[in-house]
Amino acid sequence: MPQNEHIELAQKRFGKRLNHDEKKRKKEAREVHKRANFAQKALGLKGKLFAKKRHAEKALMKKTIAMHEERDNKHKAEDGAPQNALPAYLLEREQIDRAKVLSNTIKQKRKEKAGKWEVPLPQVRPMAEDEMFKVLKTGKRMKKSWKRMITKVTFVGGNFTRKPPKYERFIRPTGLRMKKAHVTHPELKATFCLDIIGVKKNPNGVMYSTLGVITKGTIIEVNVSELGLVTPGGKVVWGKYAQVTNNPENDGCINAVLLV
User: How confident is the model over 121-162, as pLDDT tens digits?
Assistant: First the structure.
């Protein structure tokens, strides 16, 4: 084992502390104030270099935000011919078409990079840890309580193998594992039973996304090859994102809406 990987090894064997994510979040929140404090106190060359670095970061951030904002631009219709039939009183007017700045494919790729989508359910009820996990007592005298059983629906890949029970911290019951979802296409107004490829983002936190927990509002990736969708270049689309719209643990199935 490499000398510097003892922390990762310990995390794999025994998991992280229960308050690890909360401490990490607080540390990140404090970082902003620390940086502002330093920026006010830094003098001379150090201050100039820091200001230059921050200026570059802010410019990049503004550029990224502007890139992800969907804007419409008005321009004259290229041929001047109306797209649809027009009444007589509108025939004299200059034709204006409303067009998107970027094509949908490029937009989707950029949104995926930023982790930002326009979703049917923009806000969902946050879930407490007690609701998501059930504490399991272990050990000879049942005194140890570091194991957790997930009480929600989960997705695990086809080649998933459980850890040895002694080292498994998060237990995903087989009865609550699902591999298919009922996905509705909003434009076709039809529902298809599709295979799940993976869990992209759970609104309750990164830990739930990595564990593959599926709750209301989760973004999942589904296999849409059987729908016959193609890109403008003519390639077949086989993976697309969808948002879960129901509570799968109550209904016994996953209902989702495709993000197009």
Answer: 888 999 988 999 999 999 999 999 999 999 999 999 888 888
Which pTM value belongs to this model?
Answer: 0.58
Distances (CA, A) of 5 to 17, 66, 219: 18, 40, 32
CB 176 within 8 A of CB 249: yes
C-alpha span between 236 and 226 (Å, rounded) = 10
What does the pLDDT average to over 90-107? 57
Of 124, 212, 198, 227, give the one whose Cα is nearest residue 170: 212
Dihedrals phi, psi of 82, to nearest 5 degrees = -70, 145
How many helices (H) and strands (E) the chain has is answered by 7, 12
The radius of gyration computed from the CA coordinates of the chain, to the nearest angstrom, equals 25
Biggest CA pair distance of the chain: 88
- The identity of residue 40, as a single letter, is Q
- Which conformational region is residue 207 in: left (phi greater than 0), alpha (psi within -120 to 50 degrees), or beta? alpha
State the Cα–Cα distance between residues 200 and 243, nearest whole angstrom: 10
CA separation, residue 45 to residues 20, 48, 58 (Å): 37, 5, 20
Per the model's pLDDT, the better-predicted residue between 90 and 181 turns out to be: 181
**Other Cβ atoms closer than 10 A to 172:** 20
Reported confidence tier of residue 111, pLDDT bands at 50, 70, 90: low
> What is the model's pLDDT at position 101?
45
